[in-house]
């Protein structure tokens, strides 16, 4: 079950929004003050937060700051005041959207669906930049490679080589394939560059145990990412 946290000290507003949230297929969590909002947020990890700005104990801005310091969960601020500087401040502290009272519940739900779609798209983009095979994890966005949680210090070209090979398991890449795709067609060099590069890469990868996979040499042709029988 996914939750939507609704934080507002006006019970009429929370009742209406809770009913609409249920229609969207989520379970509402209701908080009447900032402290309760943070407690519920930490306990239930909701999919999104509808957050009133003017609340007892801790206001919506402070709650938003604390949420954003720990999470990228979507936050929509709701307030009775619509001055531009307040909207800007809300967005500057990390709110994803801003709605001014009085509002239509349908508008709130439309804004909610929009921020959840954006979050889903961002998650997909992140996943597309992260490759996991056995105990190997390559992050092409951060240009990092971990084996069994241990970070292996590689150059940008070495990480790109591993991404190319590991994202196409069992596919044989000729030395010319790798030279062209990783160094470019206009690179002045020969296929021995690839062999030297792979040799250095293997030496670094062998610093960590990786029984489930390896870079295999296909003699007379090139290299491939091979999954072994003992993969984890």
Question: What does this protein structure show overall?
Answer:
This protein is an alpha/beta fold and 232 residues long. It is 44% helix and 22% strand. The chain contains eight helices and twelve strands. The chain has helices at residues 11-23, 34-44, 60-70, 84-92, 105-128, 156-166, 175-183, 192-205, and strands spanning 3-7, 27-31, 48-52, 75-79, 97-100, 130-133, 136-139, 144-147, 150-151, 173-174, 213-218, 222-227. The strands form three sheets. A five-stranded parallel beta sheet has the order 2-1-3-4-5, sandwiched between helices. It has a four-stranded antiparallel beta sheet with strand order 6-7-8-9. A three-stranded antiparallel beta sheet has the order 10-12-11. A hairpin with a 4-residue loop joins strand 7 (136-139) and strand 8. Helix 2 (34-44) packs parallel to helix 3 (60-70) and helix 7 crosses helix 8 (192-205). The longest helix is centred in the middle third of the chain and has 24 residues, at 105-128. The chain is elongated. It starts with a strand and ends in a 5-residue tail after the last strand. The mean pLDDT is 84.
């Amino acid at each position: 079950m996914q939750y939507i946290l609704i934080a507002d000290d006006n019970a009429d507003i929370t009742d209406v929004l809770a009913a609409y949230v249920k229609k969207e297929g989520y379970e509402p969590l209701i908080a009447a003050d900032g402290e309760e909002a943070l407690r519920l947020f930490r306990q239930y990890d909701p999919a999104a937060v509808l957050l009133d700005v003017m609340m007892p104990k801790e206001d919506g801005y402070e709650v938003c700051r604390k949420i954003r310091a720990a999470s990228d969960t979507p936050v929509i601020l709701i307030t009775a005041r619509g001055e531009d500087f307040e909207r800007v401040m809300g967005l500057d502290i990390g709110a994803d959207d801003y709605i001014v009272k009085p509002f239509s519940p349908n508008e709130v739900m439309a804004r909610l669906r929009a921020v959840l779609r954006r979050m889903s798209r961002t998650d997909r983009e992140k996943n597309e930049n992260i490759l996991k095979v056995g105990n190997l994890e390559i992050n092409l966005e951060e240009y990092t490679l971990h084996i069994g949680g241990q970070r292996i210090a590689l150059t940008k070209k070495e990480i790109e080589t591993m991404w190319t090979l590991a994202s196409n398991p069992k596919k044989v890449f000729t030395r010319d394939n790798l030279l062209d795709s990783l160094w470019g067609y206009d690179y002045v060099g020969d296929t021995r560059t690839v062999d030297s590069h792979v040799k250095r890469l293997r030496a670094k990868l062998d610093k960590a145990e990786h029984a489930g996979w390896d870079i295999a040499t296909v003699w007379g042709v090139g290299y491939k990412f091979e999954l072994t029988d003992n993969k984890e």
